[in-house]
Design goal:
296 residues; Diaminopimelate Epimerase, Chain A, domain 1; 4 helices; globular; binds ligand LBFN2T5F; EC 5.1.1.7; Diaminopimelate epimerase; DAP_epimerase_DapF
Amino acid sequence: MTTRPPLPFTKMHGLGNDFVVFDATRAPLALSEDQLRFVGDRRFGIGADQILVVERPQGPDADFRYRIFNGATGEEVEHCGNGARCFMRFVREQGLTDRDEVRVETMNNRIVLRMQADGRVTVDMNQPILELERVPFDPSGLQPRLENGAELWPLANPAAPQEQVEVAVVSMGNPHAVQRVDDVDTAPVAQVGPWVESHPRFPRKVNAGFLQVVARDRVRLRVFERGAGETLACGTGACAAVVAGIRLGWLDARVDVETRGGELTIEWDGPGSSVRMTGPAVTVFQGEVVLPAASC
Ligand SMILES: N[C@@H](CCC[C@H](N)C(=O)O)C(=O)O
């Protein structure tokens, strides 16, 4: 029988959106989807909404590369806002850098992270992507309703077409569909989230956001995440919701976002500018895990 060596990991969270983080800067780490799902499993594994793998960069203009996998499915995804802040705390606590500003390659972009004096992390999340084919979203045959010149798209539940919602469509590198609700506490997140997530008009699925506007500078948000279900907070979801709310004329350029796990600040000066996200990142514990053998 072969014994596999234990693998060190760090458990972290950003507003209760939790992560297992592996350091692959010293030795390469290739985990199978089964192994990633095991790590993400809250009963049979460690438990995490997402798994983050920190690597050396591939190109010259970055300090690191980081990869993100949804814990429930093991699928690799493009972006994770809360994960980015945890990544910043991780590389500093592990002694991988002492810089206050770090440039990071993600699957489809490059982001810049800054450690603030108060311990929070600000992430330059790049410009939102609003071209529908790049989200990707298929609007063929649909008639959007315009508010403040921005589109709200009707979306019907394929299994019960009389059930309809209206969504703003935004990509932060990963896809988001944001709907406005009167009260996030009573919003049908568990019922509507799953069919929006898998709606055929989103060929790569979508994160489903439920946005309550409290004031022009304050919102409440819940997100049913693609490949994870509802999480206590979603950083890219917060960015997408604020971008949507600004475009639709509901919000100002700086907005505090209340999630079930805590608060984030999102800033966006409009088309052509980057979205900035500021919030906490927490290390919970460190440990070692023996992974099940990768199936061939
Ligand atoms: N929790 C994240 C988003 C993680 C990825 C998402 N589930 C997806 O599939 O796009 C965040 O804080 O942004």
